[in-house]
Amino acid sequence: MKCDGIRDLLAEEQAGTLEGKARAELESHLRECAACREERTSLDRLWTMLAEMPPVGPGAAVRPRFYAMLEGYRQGLDRKLHPTPATSAPRSWPGLGFWRRPAFQFGLAGVLIVASFAGGYLFRGGRNGQAELADLREEVHEMRRMVTMSLLSQQSASERLKGLSWSAQVEQPDPEFLSTLLHTLDYDPNVDVRLSAVDALARFAQDPGVRQGIIKSLARQNSPMVQIALIDLLVQLHEHQSADVLRQLTNDANQNQLVRQRALRGLQIIG
Amino acid sequence: MGQQPEDSAGDQSLMMAVRDGDVSKLGILFERHHARLFHYLFRLTGDRHLSEDLVQEVFVRLLKYRHTFRGECRFTTWLYQIARNARTDFFRGSCTNALSFEDQEREFVSSHPLPDEHLEQDEEMRILTDALSRLPEKKREVLLLRGLHGMSFEEIAKVMDCPVNTAKGRAFDAIRTLRHAVMELRGERVS
């Protein structure tokens, strides 16, 4: 048999599925052909070396990040299975913790709006009613803002994610609120939370301070997923001031290849 | 071939427990598999941060899709199927392929000095990792699953979503391509 034909047998042998007559045929060829013999030896050696490649370990942050995610998931599951509040409530006053729950706070805010509207309509009417309604709306807005800020300061990543989701309810953010979101984007140890912060900040991207913060954050991030999300956002905003950072990323050989490509494409789009 | 972590039956029952709501058992599976999974992803992508992100993403997906685990295949087969999908989703729309990870590799080697007697072996390994990084992604993938993780071709076929014979053919083709790349890097004549 010629060398080309023997390759199929060699492949079967490598897969551990060569038997009987075919195996005898291969062995017979190998006894006569030094080139095929050498090829088999070197292929076997390569498989051995692949199995012995020195392990490359992940960074130290991977473990705490996983356990933060797992704990958040476990807590969420517990709350789903056991809806009775079990935290923060003194034994002498069971159920006190319910007022801290965002669902209750949001619900209460809604009830207040409706009550205010109805009350204003029935008892005052006209401008006074309108003013009261505006005041109550402002209070609801403030409550949403506080709930978001409070959730963002929690240890559990799932709570912080919830906080970012609540941020969508805030229509007129103050500088402190925006600063908290930017801080989350910059320093939260959890990538999923940082990615959600990108989405949350996108809603307030008309604010020049937010845009500047996003540009600065892009230069600071080390997660390719977050970097790409930020690049996409800046390109979507046609933010010309991000050109320098995008150029730096494009030229930085240490950056992830995909990030560099995305930055280059971004530069081309925003000009 | 490389060895898969032992106690496959234990993995199955742990994942069954996770599926049935005892999610804290995922911690044991994480401890058993995350380093090896990271190694696989790092060899594939050549990017340390991205590989760490993907490890996290894979375990998030294990929780998200835990109800779909039926225990019909080994846990590791399911794990690497999910890893493959997570990676594909990340790179979707990109033409990126065969990333060089020479820099990261150099960083790794320099932070883990080897005794003098291992220098020659170290050089061989450096050539191997360099050659591996030059291979097209699918070839690299099949070599890692077979060589590094010691998967059977039946398992590789499930992970790569192809017939068993295709997996076998790809592996043989890939190991021969790797041999050529190694010979080129050594400056040997390629036949």
- The arrangement of helices and strands of chain A along the chain is HHHHHHHHHHHHH
Low-confidence stretches of chain B: 93-117
Quaternary structure annotation = heterodimer
Task: Round the Cα radius of gyration of chain A to an integer and report it.
Answer: 31 Å
Q: Count of DSSP E strands of chain A?
A: 0
Average pLDDT level of chain A = 79
Instruction: Tell me the distance between the termini of chain A.
Output: 63 Å
Q: Report the sheet with the most strands of chain A, covering strand number, pairing sense and barrel closure.
A: none
Helix content of chain A: over 70%
Strand content of chain B: under 5%
Major pleated sheet of chain B: none
Number of helices of chain B: 9
Order of helices and strands of chain B: HHHHHHHHH
Gross morphology of chain B: elongated
Number of strands of chain B: 0
Largest interface: A-B, 48 and 61 residues
Secondary-structure class of chain B: mainly alpha
